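Exercise 7. Predict the structure of 3D-(3,5/4)-trihydroxycyclohexane-1,2-dione acylhydrolase (Decyclizing) from Rugamonas rubra.
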Amino acid sequence: MNAAKGKTIRLTMAQALVRYLAALRVATPDGGREPLFGGAFAIFGHGNVAGLGEALYQERASFPTYRAHNEQGMAHAAIAYAKAHMRRRMMAVTTSIGPGATNLLTAAALAHVNRLPVLLLPGDVFVSRAPDPVLQQLEDGGDGSVSVNDAFKPLSRYFDRIIYPEQLLTALPRAIAVLTDAAQCGPVTLALPQDVQTMAYDYPVEFFNPPLVRFRTVQPDLEDMAAAAALLGQARQPLIVAGGGVLYGEAGAALRAFAEKHGIPVAETQAGKGALPWDHPLQLGAIGVTGSPAANLMAGQADLVLAVGSRLQDFTTGSNTLFASAKLVSLNVNAFDALKRRGQAVLSDARVGLELLSAMLGDWKAGEGWTARAQTQSNEWRETVAAITARRFVALPYDGEVIGAVQRSAADSTTRDIVVCAAGTLPAELHKLWRTATPGGYHMEYGYSTMGYEVAGGLGVKMAKPDAEVIVMVGDGSYLMMNSELATSVMLGKKLIVVLLDNRGYGCINRLQQAVGGAPFNNMFDDCLQAGPGMPQIDFALHAKSLGALAENVKTIPELEAALARARAADRSYLVCIDTDPARTTSEGGCWWEVAVPEVSQREQVRQARQAYEQDKSAQRKKQ
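Solution. The predicted structure, encoded as tokens:
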């Protein structure tokens, strides 16, 4: 008989919350157990310091609390931590009310779009309303129950406001169920009114001995699977598009076996890169707007696309033009994603689905000429990548040459390094050119493409994978938006190597602006409104040193290679800044991406761009 059954323990709501989170365990691959939560990031204010702050202090030995420098940044780090763990472990984030809470909104959207778990615990106003309006409280003249935390509702997979301490008994299990559900995974927000945090309740002792957390496998419907097998069995020129679900479903081995058995080439989305080793004969590389010529050529010729764990966003599909005429089989744990583009939906875990589909197909193979053509294209693209990344002696290097220097700086870079990035030109270049043989060796936040994620995300990755060399690649625009967690990395002893590419502005959007007929305007420092001293002369190395990191500025690729050797040998975070060409990009690959162009303009360049836009749009798949 359970001795704890019927017994209670008197705790504040905040104490009960933290104790419950600290008690959650997941199984490890070797049969052991480890905490589900790696701890919490916290920036305290009047809305959480007394209640939740005291509770975190009491549990600090079993549930560590990490101080950060920006609420959005620490949430990005928490999300990256979960992504690096393939959603098997996660973190909590707590802030005060007001700006502390609303600083989390961008991160909540990022986690929602990317289907990544994070537990957000913003403080809230007094339920009693005794001190209304409390400092930082938003007042709504038409609804007295509203606080700024209501803004989290559309950005959360599950939202609750705890107005009685006993509500934790139902709210917490529901929150954990969402955070660990393959289909519903995403941000959970529990708004915590500051007076309720401090209220006590007699909680059942057994509540703090929760069962082992299980990550359930979504089993496919056999009729759906049979329909998918029938479609695939009729195809001569099939293509697999591997999305993030392959990685999160730990289905890399199943994908490889499926591709090899049936002779089907594989292309990878931003989220799915690393699902198949970069040098596998059937690996075509990146697909879509940031894709390789090999993947995009084969996608345009495919008669069937098997999308595994992909959201099929516009960068993957070329705004629904890239494989518009191909039949589609979409294997996904999430019905919302599986039903996109009117394909044959199969709701299934990636590993289980691929294994069952392979068994149903038996000895069926893609057309022999198709497989051979894919292998030829794959080999040619790898040779092109080698040539691009090998260039060392150029007057002003561009991103591809910098990527090559980073990969050359360690003999085991394809297996030990984890590159982290998020926005701008670098995602396109890295998607095409970065070589990884390890799932998780490519950590890109491109679902929300959030500038400022990079340094904070690198911190979260390093916390999750302390033995890896974490390389943060970031442009000057993103770095200037958010860099303060570099100081946190120094404080926590979580070494990052930050490679900062300075093109003196927002080079990516500057090129897009001109590609749609616009004049260079308000993106590069040279093209924006200036007064007084004019364009700022920023010493990024000096800035990084002021945050406690080691740093240096370099000019050439050989200088970068030497600096990277010093960075790898360093005992703390190290930033290397190099000037890069804002105009040059990798010309190979890519495809159309829909960016609407004005119908009316006084500028001839815009009118010409509109004409081209309408022509390209005619190839778009209709009635999505």
